[in-house]
Amino acid sequence: MSTLPGKKRAPFIVIEGLDRSGKTTQTSKLHSRLTENGIDATLVKFPDRTTAIGKMIDSYLRSTSELDDHAIHLLFSANRWELATTIEKLLLAGTAVVCDRYAFSGIAFSASKVDSTGAPLLPFEWCRDPDVGLPAPDLVLFFDITPEKARERGGYGEERYEKEEMQLRVRNFFRRIGEEMDGEAQSAGGTRWISIDAGREREEVEHDVWGLVEPLVTRGVDGPVGKLWTKDP
């Protein structure tokens, strides 16, 4: 398998996106392509529905159980913290981590919840706070797709959050997060956030993803693993 040059570490790559944007398919394709090219890589998916916390989340998403909105948000965050140390160790050991959804999804979906009057149920800042200090990705690829286009794809609407009005609000919060991450990256060399048109053919999207990821995994990353929304390494 590949060896990174010098004392560089492996990159942490996150693919985010709206439901039915094709991100899970593309995340799996990317992981396969990396390993086929002799690059050490691990695939992580959030929520990880195999853990005790993940099973509670899975039941909630399938609408077979009910939980307070604050509680389910904290469970999503706890599910990510379960793997935080593992992710950091992999990166420092030279294994790239490819992640299907991360903290950004947790924030966007929870902040998009509204009551019967349309008022937000959970403040944006409150939604972000539990994930402060998680390992920061080096690259986030946001798969952007209109809810109308997503609805044309099979399986849309099967889970709790796959409703068009909800997806529109989620899309707006993703844009807000992306703009904030871009600002931080430009000022302090943080996470790079790139939007990809996910409404195109799979092969086109796959080509763009590889073009962005391949240079990063080949040259490696300098410095320690960053922390989300904190200036401390």
TrEMBL record:
Alphabetical list of InterPro entries matching this protein: P-loop_NTPase, Thymidylate_kin-like_dom, Thymidylate_kin_CS, Thymidylate_kinase
A Pfam match: Thymidylate_kin
Matches recorded under PROSITE patterns: THYMIDYLATE_KINASE (PS01331)
Top-rank taxon, per record: Eukaryota
GO BP of this protein: dTDP biosynthetic process; dTTP biosynthetic process; dUDP biosynthetic process
Ranges of residues in domain Thymidylate kinase-like: 15-208
Gene Ontology CC: one annotated term: nucleus
EC number(s) recorded for this UniProt protein: 2.7.4.9
Keywords, alphabetical: ATP-binding, Kinase, Nucleotide biosynthesis, Nucleotide-binding, Transferase
Family: Belongs to the thymidylate kinase family.
The name this protein goes by in its record: Thymidylate kinase
Lineage of the organism: Eukaryota, Fungi, Dikarya, Basidiomycota, Agaricomycotina
